[in-house]
Amino acid sequence: MIEFTEENHNIVAIERLTDSTIKLFLIKRTDILYSDNYASAGNIEEKIKTDILAYFKKDEANAARDVSRQEIDAAHIIYRYLHSGSCSYLIIPENWLDPENHATLDLALKNLLNNPQHFQPLILNE
User: Fold this and answer.
1) Residue 15's closest CA among 93, 85, 62?
2) 82 and 91 in contact (C-beta within 8 Å)?
3) What residues have CB less than 8 Å from 92, skipping those under 6 apart?
4) If residue 17 lies in a helix (H) or strand (E), which one and from where to where?
5) Helix (H, G, I), strand (E, B), or coil: what is residue 2?
6) Average pLDDT of 57-65?
7) Exposed, middle or buried by CB within 10 Å (0-12, 13-18, 19+), for 46?
């Protein structure tokens, strides 16, 4: 659990609330940076991408700090949620946030959002 926390992941999680609504979570380390509900119909990829780029910023000071007991507990809860089958998620490497790699981010978001069940976790790492 300490390694999971220290890796300071950028995590996008999507949970289906109803047939027409999904809930988006943007998580960094053990912090939920942003969450919102979206109508699952239509093209929401650009809105989610905009949110990702706005909320996931490189934060070297945060990455370098020691892991506290409270963070380990929070990381355990997040890890269990991600692996519970209640959501689909992907981990976004820092380099995907760079403009030259936005095509990779676009493809990963498209794959995540086109998952018809939003129940089978999708992890993309590079």
Assistant:
1) 85
2) no
3) 9, 10, 11, 12, 52, 56, 105, 108
4) strand 10-18
5) helix
6) 58
7) exposed
Length of the chain: 126
- Residue 99 has a pLDDT of 93
pTM: 0.77
Q: What is the dihedral of CA 79, 81, 86, 88, to 10 degrees?
A: -40
pLDDT at 60 over 70: no
Answer for the pair 49, 66: CB distance below 8 angstroms, yes or no: no
- Tokens 């506290």 label which residue? 68
Give the CA count within 13 Å in the CB-facing half-sphere of 69. 0
18's tokens: 């109803």
| Contact by Cβ (8 Å): 28, 56 | yes
Contacts of residue 43, defined as CB under 8 A and 6 or more positions apart, other chains included, come to none
26: Cβ–Cβ under 8 A, 6 or more apart, which residues? Answer: 10, 11, 12, 32, 33, 34, 35, 51, 52, 55, 56
Residue among 100, 81, 83, 101 nearest 92 (CA): 101
